[in-house]
């Protein structure tokens, strides 16, 4: 596994697995919870160590149980979760503390590697209070890194006004439909690492070109797609319910795209 060093020195695996439909009936986001996640077991066996969770996914406890039952040492894991921008979690500092304490319990751990605010918080006071609690837990060593998700420029600017600790990452949609190039340039300037959610989303005509590029390396179009993002400094957290695809999404480090390939992908 390769890592990116975040702005506070913490190392984050460059490929992780999403979990938003894991352990759910019919692999549906809103599906009823089951009692097991064979896909997560499979991902850990294949070498995934970065796990992207969220309170909103409603499966933290189950994911935490599967992680605890695996033989993977805690220090090898990189656990991310996210506090929703809902009143229940951000109406007071106490509410945010309770959310973080509950996540720590769900993941059966005394620290999380990364905690994010899941969506922008409109109310300035609530944003400030939430971030202050994040900083409090960060300083206590219970959060190794803190960051945001789905924040645009104006929301990052707002945070800057009072943040003592700069967000380490901004997890945003990045794929060939939502390239987000302007925001990526801003994040680079600010030293905030981009994490791509929904990295696999493409349109049919794009897949043909990606597949064609992949042929030269014995790779699939999906692998080309992930490699393209990684090569420009983006962490990816693809989610798959299929072991073969899970394996393919880790098998990205034995080839390099040429400048001509990149140009082709960027023109799609
Ligand atoms: N912060 C946020 O607001 C936010 C929002 C959405 C998602 N997320 C996070 O980001 C993670 C990833 O996003 P996502 O699940 O929405 O979408 P995604 O990872 O872009 O796409 C998942 C789809 O891609 C397919 N796939 C995966 N690898 C493949 C491969 N090698 N070849 C062909 N198809 C492949 C999967 O099908 P198979 O199962 O058949 O492989 C699945 O249908 C989520 O699980 C979640 O943790 C965060």
UniProtKB/TrEMBL annotation:
Q: One Pfam family name from the record?
A: Aldo_ket_red
Keywords annotated in UniProt: NADP, Oxidoreductase
Q: Which SUPFAM superfamilies match?
A: NAD(P)-linked oxidoreductase
InterPro entries per the UniProt record, alphabetical: AKR (IPR020471), Aldo/ket_reductase_CS (IPR018170), NAD(P)_OxRdtase_dom_sf (IPR036812), NADP_OxRdtase_dom (IPR023210)
* Top-rank taxon: Bacteria
Ranges of residues in domain NADP-dependent oxidoreductase: 16-268
Family per similarity comment: Belongs to the aldo/keto reductase family.
Task: Please give the name of this protein.
Answer: Aldo/keto reductase
Q: Which organism is it from?
A: Solibacillus faecavium
């Amino acid at each position: 596994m390769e890592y990116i060093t975040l702005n506070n020195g913490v190392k984050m695996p460059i490929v992780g697995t999403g979990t938003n439909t894991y352990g759910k009936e019919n692999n549906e986001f809103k599906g009823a919870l089951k009692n097991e996640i064979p896909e997560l077991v499979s991902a850990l066996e294949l070498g995934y160590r970065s796990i992207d969770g969220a309170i909103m996914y409603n499966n933290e406890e189950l994911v935490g149980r599967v992680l605890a039952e695996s033989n993977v040492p805690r220090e090898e894991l990189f656990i991310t979760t996210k506090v929703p921008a809902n009143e229940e979690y951000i109406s007071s500092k106490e509410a945010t503390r309770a959310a973080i304490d509950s996540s720590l319990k769900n993941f059966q751990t005394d620290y999380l590697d990364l905690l994010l605010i899941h969506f922008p918080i409109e109310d300035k006071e609530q944003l400030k209070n939430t971030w202050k609690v994040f900083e409090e837990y960060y300083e206590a060593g219970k959060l190794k890194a803190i960051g945001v998700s789905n924040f645009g420029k104006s929301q990052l600017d707002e945070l800057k006004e009072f943040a003592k600790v700069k967000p380490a990452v901004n997890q945003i949609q990045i794929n060939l439909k939502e390239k987000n190039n302007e925001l990526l340039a801003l994040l680079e300037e600010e030293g905030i690492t981009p994490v791509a959610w929904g990295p696999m989303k493409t349109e049919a005509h794009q897949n043909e070109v990606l597949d064609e590029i992949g042929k030269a390396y014995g790779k699939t179009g999906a692998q080309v797609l992930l490699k393209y993002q990684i090569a420009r400094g983006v962490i990816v957290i693809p989610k798959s319910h299929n072991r073969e695809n899970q394996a393919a999404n880790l098998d990205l480090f034995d080839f390099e795209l040429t400048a001509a390939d990149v140009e082709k992908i960027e023109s799609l």
